[in-house]
Amino acid sequence: MAFTVSGLSPEPFRHLYGLPDAELAAHFARRVTAGQSGFPERIELRDAAPGETLLLVHYLHQDVDSPFRASHAVYVREGATAAARQAGLPEVLKRRLLSLRAFSADGMLVDSDVVEGAEAQSLIERMLGDGRVAYLHAHSARPGCYLARIDRA
Q1: How many other β-carbons are positioned within 10 Å of the β-carbon of residue 48?
Q2: Which pLDDT value is given to residue 75?
Q3: 135: phi > 0 → left, psi -120 to 50 → alpha, else beta; which?
Q4: Where are the alpha helices (DSSP H) in 2-136?
Q5: What contacts 14, CB < 8 A, 6 or more positions away?
Q6: Are 121 and 89 in contact (CB under 8 A)?
Q7: Phi and psi angles of residue 61, each rounded to the nearest 5 degrees, phi first
Q8: Which of 68, 69, 89, 144 is the most buried (most CB within 10 A)?
Q9: Which whole number is the average pLDDT over 32-47?
Q10: Is the pTM of this model over 0.90?
């Protein structure tokens, strides 16, 4: 089964681009510099290059009226203008231990599992093959952060 992986829209973050650090803090955000690893950018769906400037922001990634409404911290590249959307898994997901969460159209959890990103395709296809499932969320299993949304193509 074909699927697409989508990054976040830059729209909710544009007002933060260029703000001084004190103003970022008022929005529950911080400017950070990427180190050698562990900085997955959520708009462009890639690992940030060492030394690259990112915003670490609080983001409501499961904006539903259900008990599974959820938010977490995510990295976005300051100045990113377009959300990534690609067929199959991007490298940023393949390199991580993933927690996949399958949700129904009304935001209820239907299924979940943990898998190495490089081996995730068959699990994604199985989950999306369940008629109750409307979409998946991929999270980094170790820090637990939201990474991307996965939909049937």
Answers
A1: 22
A2: 97
A3: beta
A4: 21-26, 91-94, 121-128
A5: none
A6: yes
A7: -90, -20
A8: 89
A9: 94
A10: yes
pLDDT at 5 over 90: yes
Residues contacting residue 75 through CB under 8 Å, at least 6 positions apart = 32, 34, 39, 40, 41, 42, 48, 54, 55, 56, 57
Angle at 143 between CA 139 and CA 148, to 5 degrees: 20
Reported as a single tens digit per residue, the pLDDT across 71-82 is 999 999 999 999
Query: Using CA atoms, how far apart are residues 48 and 77, in angstroms rounded to an integer?
Result: 8
* CA–CA distance, 53 with 105 (Å, rounded to integer): 36
Identify the helix (H) or strand (E) that includes residue 59.
strand 53-62
**How far is residue 5's CA from residue 148's CA, in Å, rounded to a whole number?**
7
pLDDT at 143 over 90: no
Q: How many residues are recorded in the chain?
A: 153
Q: What mean pLDDT is predicted for residues 35-61?
A: 94
Contact status, residue 145 vs residue 62, Cβ threshold 8 Å: no
